[in-house]
Amino acid sequence: MIEKIKWFFKVKLFKRDIRTQIERLKGNGMIIGENVHILNSTIDEGHAFLIEIGNDVTITNSTILAHDASIKKDLGYSIVGNVKIGNRVFIGWGSIVLCGVTIGDDVVIGAGSVVTKDIPSNSIAVGNPARVVASKDEFIDRHKLGLETKPRYEVYALYKTETEKRKMKEEIIDIGYDM
């Protein structure tokens, strides 16, 4: 009996999956393109086979769900749906993408957004629920102008000296641009 308990603790409790998150997701059937960065995010590993992520995608501290168990207790089934994220997509900090959603190419999902419906290509979508507020082209043009008129910094914030950080804090009135 003691040996069984030792085995349980050794194998079941302390067994670690040392694969990366992306390796685990691919192993569960998720399709992931090239140059994909998933940073501190939760992705539905149990339904990963329903999720497809294109190339050049960044997902920051967000959640991607391919199922919704809200009706399971009442009906005995969960809602499931494919999630497709296109190419050149940025999903901002704290966003949630729900099942059954397609996000087109060249899309920015603003921080804290909840994506409940499809987002067309070349869009900026924000809010809860997420709604399109601009085209990506308009968004980029607006910030190109900002790069000419607002403070711009060539060293990423984490690598700045204390003097550079103080200067940056003093110079930025509303927004600026950092590497």
From TrEMBL:
Pfam families: Hexapep_2. GO terms for molecular function: transferase activity. InterPro entries: Hexapep, Hexapep_transf_CS, Trans_hexapeptide_repeat, Trimer_LpxA-like_sf. CDD domains: LbH_MAT_like. Keywords: Repeat, Transferase. This is Acyltransferase. It comes from Metabacillus litoralis.
